[in-house]
Amino acid sequence: MNRDARYTVTVLLLTAAVLAPIVVLNYVVGVYVLTNEQLPPLAHEWQTQTRGTVSVSPGAELRFKRLALRDRLASIDTLVLGSSTLTTVQAVMIGHAAGGDRFYNFTVSNNGSRLIAGDADFVVDEMPSVRLVIVGLDWATAQGIFVEGEARRREGGLTRDPESEQVSVWEQLSDTLTWPRTVQLYGLLKGWLRGEPEVRDLRNLRDAPAYCPGDGTCPSADSCRDFDTSGMLRRHACLGFRWDGSVNISAYGHFARDENAKKLMDTYSAADGYGPMMAARGIPNRLVLDSLARSARRLRQQHREMIVVLPPMLPHLAEELARRPSTAEYVTRVRTELAQWAEREGMHVIDANASEAFGCGFEDFFDNIHAGPACFEKVLASLRR
Fold first, then answer.
1. Boundaries of every domain in the chain
2. HEC string of 194-222?
3. What predicted TM-score, i.e. pTM, was given to this entire model?
4. The CATH number of the domain covering residues in 74-158+254-383
């Protein structure tokens, strides 16, 4: 074996030695919350009784939200559809009561534009009580408007009985290597080594959900309960879904008004989310746009409304991407095409990509493309009733 081959083999073995325990331990801890069909109903039942904040795993998110939506089907008149870029939109931002039943945020992590358009089509046909549909349309995410294919409905729509859903082995394995799971594992092991009572016995993760009791130990007035491993690390942060479907993610912190945010903006690359835009040369999936336009027309005919939101980006990031030689042509093209589409189809679009125009600052963001509630309050101010 020559020197290069030995080097390659050594690197591969070291990589495997590092990844193997992470995969195995994360699989043991994570597979329980991914495959336990009882957790979403338990989380839903607890939230229905308390109207508190509940944490579920990414794999259980869709099932949990379907249960909530099905229970409130007749009363909801405002529904938010999209990916995690709209996950912090709350009922109070458009004039609904925080603890009411008329608003629900049905955004789902890593939700693709094809499925979002299919969800909108489902709302037109199957959810007549919904008078306003707010749709998030991404172009700077991996599952955004450039992914090819026709819009499609989820099997069973938005209200399918989640007990019949299955999580594939590939989804389970993929979950073990996500950054949140790895961070959670590190925190759990560190707490276990320190003898912290919450994680002293790792079997507790399998035996029962963890509590954040809402007795003053949590900063929020809401009671909280964790049906995932993440709350074991942020027990006092009330991390999870509120009653209105929005997410309280304040535990992750915000950017500050300093060079760190600017540096992250400067290093934002195709690998961070806009790779599909580069591959599509800035041409959005017109099949998805056509599907959304059809749904909007049908809603207008029924005296209902669709509003499309181009989610906020870190201040000046859209401007920066439009200036970079590697992305300028494609950013200009997609933004021009979306503007022309909106005008041609009579779409109501709130373009919040340039969030600085709405008064949003670095401190209002969790990362480049995920804005917190303070920014969305400004973006959606015109919708308050």
1. 74-158+254-383
2. HCCHHHCCCCHHHHCCEEECCCCCCCCCC
3. 0.80
4. 3.40.50
